[in-house]
Amino acid sequence: MSTAYSGPDRQGYFGAYGGVHVPDVLVEPLREIDEAYRRISRSADFIAELRYIRKHFQGRPTPVSYCRRLSDFLGGARIYLKREDLNHSGAHKLNHCMGEVLLAKYMGKKRVIAETGAGQHGVALATAAAYFGLECEIHMGEVDVAKQAPNVARMKLLGAKVVPVCFGLRTLKEAVDSAFAEYLKDPINTIYCIGSVVGPHPFPMMVRDFQEIVGIEAREQFLEMTGNLPEAVTACVGGGSNSMGIFRGFLHDESVKLYGVEPLGTGSKTGEHAATMTYGTPGIIHGFKCYLLQDEKGDPAPVYSCASGLDYPGVGPEYCQLRDAGRVNYVTASDKEAIDAFFRLSRLEGVIPALESAHAVAYAMKLAKEMEQGAILVNLSGRGDKDLDYVMENYGLGE
Fold it and tell me: Pairing mode, if any, of strands 257-265 and 328-334?
């Protein structure tokens, strides 16, 4: 793999991005997590237990599906889906949550804490905590609590404490703020299981490593199905966990174009979108340096997306390195395009996607027409059960 997009170094930097920009009280706990992860993740017992969980509890490998009717409708390149919606709990998030909570167990931690936007990370962490018998606390913006009621109920059913966050915009960024503040109170007995490839080192590295299974599986499956690699891979990008997972399987295949699809929301003005790579500049948020949507004072700017899991003003530091290296193409899909893809995939393929995943489907549909031939692999990162109430209330039944 090219050194132009490798890392992190021992200080947690991917080129110019990442690092550990945290209060002094967290420096030592994060160092201990880093050392424990590097030691434990290479042990035979840890690897064997994680493999057992993936196969016998999560239901991995998830399949790759060919979208015949959608492809025929578009009349261009063929579209395939990596079906992370069929991973237990309904999204890719369980891939890193089982790994993070397994690490917490090996470290002797008593409680796990995290933020969630769309609720999929919260459900996944609550699932993992129930599996291992640890306490679990999930912070979630009040806007998302109302918007994602089914996932809130699932978290509570699984035994997690759900903390509504009522300051700021009351969405994902504020949920991270709140969870970090709670983590600061007891970093000895608690581990913060961050929900994406963001945050201070070692979290971007850990989440990436646990999610890499998606790309490893997808590459092998696609070759077995077709005898070739896809011409393109698309995945939605908020913080970047699902897209980093699938992209890692194809980074060294220079013939495969990688497209990270950001939420354009309702427009290009501040507060109308969450397209960090498209409009952001380098800054610091939540303990790490990355491309960031900022206001004139350098503070994180307001963001918006119909997909609660994508409305974050920052992005994983490894993505920033990949952007500078030119390996990943960052593009956008609007709310309208995502909603159209949501209905299109549901009606033509019998697959209801999460609104986050629908952004990746939307760009793949556009790209398929432009390419005219070849194959596009979409990471369908989650299922849309959680979004049905919101979609029906705001968009009805579509066409």
Answer: parallel
Mark whether 92 is an active-site residue.
Answer: yes
Distances (CA, A) of 255 to 185, 192, 359: 48, 38, 23
pLDDT band at 5 (very low <50, low <70, confident <90, very high): low
Instruction: State the maximum Cα–Cα separation within the chain, in Å, rounded to a whole number.
Output: 57
What's the pLDDT tens digit per position in 70-129? 999 999 999 999 999 999 999 999 999 999 999 999 999 999 999 998 889 999 999 999
Domains of the chain, by residue range, sit at 14-53+93-204, 59-91+212-395
In CATH, the architecture of 59-91+212-395 is 3-Layer(aba) Sandwich (3.40)
Residue 67 among the catalytic residues: yes
Catalytic residue of the set 56, 67, 88, 121: 67
CATH number assigned to the domain covering 14-53+93-204 = 3.40.50.1100
Q: State the catalytic residue, choosing from 56, 92, 96, 290.
A: 92
208-222 tens-digit pLDDT? 999 999 999 999 999
